[in-house]
Every structure is written in C-alpha cells, then in structure tokens.
Amino acid sequence: MRPSTRDRLADVGLFLAAAGFSVLTADSVVVDPGLSPTLLAADQATGALACGALFLRRRWPVQLAVALLVAGTVSHFVTGATLAALYTVAVLRPPRTTGWLAVLAYAPVPVFLARAPDPGAEETDSALTYFALVAAALSWGLYVRSRRQLVASLRERAERAAEEARREAREGIAREMHDVLAHRLSLLSVHAGALEFHPDAPREEIRRAAGVVRDSAHQALEDLREVVGVLREPGGALRPQPVLADVARLVEEAREAGADVVTEWRVADPGAVPAAAGRTAYRVVQECLTNARKHAAGQRVTVRVAGEPGDGLAVEVRNRVPGAGEAAIPGGGNGLVGLAERVRLADGTLVHGRVGGDFRVEARIPWAA
C-alpha cells in the first residue's frame, strides 16, 4: 500500500528532526584530540546516511533500528536517527518487539557502569542524556501506539453501533411493511375471491366488494410508497402510528370484509395506555386478524384486551382451527415470528399455539403505573 500524504509529511518531519538534533548537539561531542578530520567527516557522512535511511522506517523498522543502534556505538551523528527509529518500532510493532529492542539499546549500560564513570565528567552527562532520550523515544512511541489502538477501537465500536442502528431501523421498517401490507393485501384477496366465486351476487354487493378491492389496493400502494420514501431518506418518518384506541377501527374494518369478530374490552381508558404498548397491542390484533382471514376464513375470531397500569396489558386472540381441505390464502410463515420479536422489543411476552380446537395468540405487554 502506497504511503499517504500524511505519512510522507511525517517521514520528512522525522528526517528533519533527526538531522537537526545531530547538528544542534554536535558541539557537545567529546572529540578525541587525536581524531583526524577524515574520521570526523566519515562520522558526519554516516549520520547523513542514517537520517536518509529513515525513509525506510515503515518497511523495515526493526532492522533499521538495530543497524542504527550498532552504528551509534561509534558515531554520534546517528543518535537523532536512532531515536526516530526506536520511536517507529514502538509505534508500529508489538510491545514484545519493542521490549527486545529496549534490551539491545540498554545493553551498553553494564559496560558503562563497570568503568566507574566520574559523575562530573562530560562523558557521563552525555551517556546519561542518551539513555534518557532512548527511554523517552520508546515511551512516546508506546503512548502513540496505545492512543491509535484506542481511537481505532472507538471508531470500530461507533461503526458497529451505527450498523446496529441501521439494522434495527431496517427491521423496524420491514415489520411495519409486513404488518400493514399483509393486512391490506389479505383484505384485497378476500374480496377478490368473493368476486371470483360469486359472480351472480347482487349488483350492490359486487359494487361494494369492488370498492373495497380498489381502496385496499390503493392504500397498499400508498403504504409501500411511504416505506420506500423512508428508506430513501434516513431522516424521514412514517405517518403517526396506531394506538390501542385504533383497535376498534381495525375490528370494524375486518367485519366489513365479512369476518365474524367478537371483542371483549377490559380497559377503562384506552387513551391512557402508553403509545408504545398500545401500538404493540394494535399490531398483535392486526396480525392475528390477518392470519385468521388467510388461514381460517369464515371462523369466529375472539379478541380480548384487558389491563390497567401496573398490571400490564393482556391481548388474546382466538379463532377456530378450520377443517382439513378448506382453502387458505398462502403466507410466508414469518408473521408470528416477527410479531414475537416486536412484543419482545416492548419487554413483553407472546405465546401462540393450538388450545383444543382453537388457535390462540396471547401477548402480555408492560404498562407502567
């Protein structure tokens, strides 16, 4: 992978810093009176090559650091490049590698102490300063590495949270699409079936059934258009969601479609039910009426809604199980699965199954006092 502009600028910055360090500290070099100008020039040339080699630090950080540490035992002018190389290893390589490199960097310490250096000598100050700078370069590199890992971890967590939020939003829209469209299309199927199997019905009844088919198809298209609009515009919102009081309208709509629905209400004030709990209860009844219309057409459906603050909201829907061979509208089989997930998201519970000759769905939804 080619280095970015930021990486190139960092490489140039370290090169200039290493070169500047070597130049600014040149006066503090303890020069042997017998050191020839040729050796001094060679030392300076070695330092220049070491600074230039820093442009290879990303490809071979450990090898470069080891080579500069060895060269640093005989040359002062590679010190700046050595510190930059040690910093690079601490940033780019695991702490274990940095630890082994620190051992190599401090290997001369026992030899230095064995010589019993004079505390006031200039050579002692230079050596102590060098070892302190090595410690600073390694420590700063480890700090930068840990900082980068923390930022990467936070970014990854933020991306996961954003993806989870998007997934939940998609699932929520999918649930709304299923609940609304399945209800509308099942109504359309029932009335279209009536027109197909009873072509000799009275004209008024045929006109009413055709009107329901037209209205249901139009409403289904409107609902689908709304959901697609929300998907295209993340900031969009669905129309005001139903509440518990809307269950009465839902039941009346089912009766107009020919369903035999009996309701039992034991909620003193449906308007007092929290919006989330009421919406969940509405979706339970809606899904159950849709399923009854699809799989138990003509069978009586009993809807019971009861509850009060503190005790929660209980919704039960029963219908007779049709006999074998009776026609049914095909379904995907995901309605009750999605319904259970919806109730679970509301911190409620849902059970369903056959009880004698009935199919029962019962949901319990929290209703805080």
From TrEMBL:
Give the reaction(s) catalysed: ATP + protein L-histidine = ADP + protein N-phospho-L-histidine
Residues in Signal transduction histidine kinase subgroup 3 dimerisation and phosphoacceptor domain copies: 170-234
The transmembrane residues are 12-31, 64-87, 99-116, 128-145
- SUPFAM superfamilies per UniProt: ATPase domain of HSP90 chaperone/DNA topoisomerase II/histidine kinase
Q: Indicate the segments forming the Histidine kinase/HSP90-like ATPase domain, all copies.
A: 280-361
Question: Which GO MF terms does the UniProt record name?
Answer: kinase activity
What CDD domains does its record include? HATPase_UhpB-NarQ-NarX-like
User: What start and end residues bound the annotated signal peptide?
Assistant: none
Pfam families the record matches:
DUF7134, HATPase_c, HisKA_3
EC number(s) of the enzyme? 2.7.13.3
Q: Does this entry carry the keyword Cell membrane?
A: no
* DUF7134 domain segment(s): 9-148
Q: Which positions are tagged coiled coil?
A: 148-175
Keywords for this protein: ATP-binding, Coiled coil, Kinase, Membrane, Nucleotide-binding, Phosphoprotein, Transferase, Transmembrane, Transmembrane helix, Two-component regulatory system
Q: What is this protein called?
A: histidine kinase
Gene source species = Streptomyces hazeniae
